[in-house]
Structures are given as structure tokens and as C-alpha cells.
Amino acid sequence: MLKELSIIKKDFIDFVSRTWDKINDYITVHYLFVGISVLLVLFIYYIIYRLVRKGIRRVNDEKLSKERKEILYRLARYAFYFAVVVYILGLFGIKLSAIWGAAGIAGVAIGFAAQTSVSNLISGIFIVSEKSIKLGDTIIINGVTGVVDTISLLSIRVHTHDNQMVRIPNSSIINSLLTNNSYNSYRRYLLNVSVAYEADLELAVETLKKAPALCPTARTDPAPNVWIDSFGESGINLILAIWFDNSDFLAVKTEAFIAVKKVFDQAKIEIPYNKVVVHNA
User: Fold this and answer.
1) What is the dihedral of CA 174, 179, 185, 189, to 10 degrees?
2) Residues 6+ apart with CB under 8 A from 130
3) Is the Cβ–Cβ distance between 196 and 222 less than 8 Å?
4) Lowest CB count within 10 Å: 11, 155, 161, 277, which one?
5) How far apart are CA 122 and CA 99, in angstroms?
6) What is the full DSSP assignment across the chain?
7) Which has the higher per-residue pLDDT, 23 or 253?
8) Rounded to the nearest 5 degrees, what angle is found at the Cα of 56, between the Cα atoms of 129 and 159?
9) What is the pLDDT, as a whole number, of residue 275?
10) Alpha-carbon distance values, 124 to 116, 129, 160, 168 (Å)
């Protein structure tokens, strides 16, 4: 009897052992396949994301500007991250509807705080669609002058001429007066010049017209111009208008001052300035 019980016990232990091994094998194989399928899906998501970026990159710059491409790059990246997060949450049985429900409750609380971000986001879309700014442009807004480095959905970044980074919210650009010095390939520089009341105005105007010829970076088309502007406190104000390429601003400004001083000295025309006269008692 004892021998039979021992045999039954041994058979039962063997049965349990074999069953447990099969369960472990099943679990191992199951999770192995699950892990492989998860990696495969994520890899497919990544391939699709890369193909979308590559497709955007191949579009001709004339059809799709660099600024719009950058926005599309960001949207594609956000969509990729969103798809990955939703897929991983689904693996743990978390339904997206539950997340939206929680987000709806939380959205009421944070809605007011997000107004600025939403305003900047909408403004960013308008900026890109208007094409009023592009990378590399020199702009002036709210007293800040700088070269545009990046254009994003919420803000743009510029570096000033002394190499400081300034972040400008998109809503500020939409709601403020924006000057884009690089929008056109060339522009005009106006130099105010004053001559004494005793000077021959016709001679002064003709002399001032000679100054642009001494400026190597000044454009001849459109042609430069000179006109009388106003009567000042200590002299008559003339204006010299010179057209130049955007990249030559500092050069043409320096050349104009030197040229005006040179032609006026040659014609013996005095530029009035404050003088102190001391008489001996």
C-alpha cells in the first residue's frame, strides 16, 4: 500500500512539474512574441515618420518654404510621439477615452493658463502663411533688432548684432508693428545734412549730388536723389537718399558720411555746428 502511494505521489509530482514547465514555456514564448510584435509596430511607426520627413525634405523650396518645412517637421514629430504613447498605453489596457475624460476635467482648470500658448500657436500659423518673415531676415520689433534664427509654432528666435539671443512670442509679432529690413533685396538710406543759411542752396544741392559717386556700395539703380527738407534752427536741412543692397548697410552708411564731408570741403560749404565765441573785455 505504501509503495502504491509513493508511486502515485511521484507521478503527481512529475505531472505538476511537467505542467509548470509547459506553462513557463508558454509564458516565455508568449511574451517573446509580444515583445517582438511591439518592437515591430514601433519600428513601422518610426519608418513612416522618417518617410514623412524625407517626403517633406524633397519638396522644392519654391513650393514649400524652409519655415513651412520646419513647422511640418515639428508636426510630424509630435504625431509620431503621440502615436507611440497611445499604442503603449493600449498595451496596458488604458483606453484613450478615459484619458480624454480626465483631460476634459483638467482642461477646465488649465484652460485659462493655456490661452497665451494657444494665441502664440495661432499667431505662428499666420506668420508662416503670410511669409512676412523667413530665416536669416533682419527684423525690428518692439525696439529689438536681430537676425531670425528659428521660427517655431510658439515663438521666433533672433540674435542681435551684439550676438544676444532674444525670444519673441508669435502673438507679439502679430500685435506689433514689424519692420523686415530683408524682405526686399535692396532698400534706401536717408542721410540728413545741414548747411548754413548763408550758403548757396543750389550749389549745396548740386554738390551733395556728387557724394553717391564716391560710395562704392551705393546702387545706381534706383538712382540716388537729393532734396531740401526743412529750415532748421541753425541751418537748412537737406536729405541725401542712397539705395543699397541689404548686406551693405554699414558700409554704405560709412561711405556716405565720408563722401559728404569730402565734397562739401572741396566746395567750401560749411556744415553748421554750435560755436562758442569769446570776446575779450
Assistant:
1) 170
2) none
3) no
4) 277
5) 25
6) -HHHHHHHHHHHHHHHHHHHHHHHHHHHHHHHHHHHHHHHHHHHHHHHHHHHHHHHHHS-TTTS-HHHHHHHHHHHHHHHHHHHHHHHHHHTT--HHHHHHHHHHHHHHHTTTTHHHHHHHHHHHHHHHHT---TT-EEEETTEEEEEEEE-SSEEEEEETT--EEEEEHHHHHHS-EEETTSSSEEEEEEEEEE-TTS-HHHHHHHHTTGGGG-TTB-SSSPPEEEEEEE-SSSEEEEEEEEEEGGGHHHHHHHHHHHHHHHHHHHT-------------
7) 253
8) 55
9) 58
10) 12, 9, 21, 11
Residue tagged 482648470 (cell numbers): 109
CB atoms within 10 A of CB 239: 15
C-alpha cell at 67: 519655415
> Does residue 226 have a pLDDT over 80?
yes
Residues 6+ apart with CB under 8 A from 33: none
Q: Do 168 and 232 contact (CB within 8 A), yes or no?
A: no
Candidates 25, 6, 29; CA nearest to 17 is 25
pLDDT tens digits, 41-70? 788 888 888 888 888 777 776 666 676 677
Over the stretch 179-196, which tens digit does the pLDDT of each residue have? 998 888 899 999 999 999
> pTM score > 0.90 for this model?
no
Amino acid at 174: I
